[in-house]
Design a protein that fits this description.
By secondary structure, the protein is an alpha/beta fold. It has helices spanning 11-21, 36-46, 62-72, 87-96, 108-119, 127-134, 145-155, 160-167, 171-185, 190-199; strands at residues 2-7, 27-33, 50-54, 77-82, 100-103, 124-125. The chain is built from 10 helices and 6 strands; from the N terminus they run βαβαβαβαβαβααααα. It is elongated.
Length: 206
């Protein structure tokens, strides 16, 4: 039997979650909590093995509470429930020790699947979020070392003349490199080139 503690500052959310799990043969809701203090108390009282917890509670956040709970009981399983579909929130939750991250607007079947997965020792990430986090990166455009240097200087707001002086090359050579960079990056004009250079200033260094 999977013993679940529901932690969310909204009573209606807790009621809705409890209703989703009512009557299930292998999951039972053993308690509810509306804030961090109640959650710490209920964990001791109710002895859950899975805590389904809101990430965005006022005061002590779900992430901070996860750290506190796992410091007291490293064997406890925390499944984060969140309205935030950003990779940053998911990564912070996992770094704090959460075993899963599921979105609040997910279908009931997905939330239950997440509970089963983490209770069985696995990790769970909502499919929509996983697709965004782990999608294949865009192929990197192969710019020469000289072109990368010119692009970096463009990103710093330097003109062709300033770049020519800095690199000790001719202005016409700088312009040729600029054209080559535009062609390789498929940029329509000089304005797009400058915008790209500014947005990517410093990327790829180190």
């Amino acid at each position: 039997m999977i013993r679940v503690l529901l932690v969310d500052d909204h009573p209606l959310v807790r009621e809705g979650l409890a209703a989703r799990m009512e009557g299930l043969a292998d999951i039972t809701v053993v308690g509810e909590a509306g804030d961090a203090a109640q959650a710490l108390e209920r964990v001791t009282q109710c002895q859950p093995n899975v805590v389904l917890m809101d990430i965005g509670m006022p005061g002590t956040s779900g992430i901070e509470l996860t750290v506190q709970l796992l410091a007291r009981d490293p064997g406890l399983i925390v499944l984060m429930l969140s309205m935030y579909d950003s990779g940053e929130h998911a990564q912070r939750a996992m770094a704090a020790g959460a075993r899963g991250y599921v979105l609040k607007d997910s279908p009931s079947a997905e939330i239950l699947a997440a509970i089963h997965t983490v209770a069985a020792g696995g990790a769970y990430l909502s499919p929509a979020l996983a697709q965004r986090l782990f999608r294949a990166p865009a192929p990197r455009i192969a710019l020469s070392e000289r072109e990368q240097g010119i692009l970096a200087l463009l990103g710093q707001g330097q003109s062709s003349k300033q770049i020519a002086r800095a690199l000790d090359i001719g202005v016409r050579t700088v312009e040729t490199h600029r054209q080559n960079i535009r062609r390789k990056l498929d940029l329509a004009g000089q304005a797009e080139l400058i915008r790209y250079a500014v947005e990517h200033a410093g990327l790829g260094r180190g």
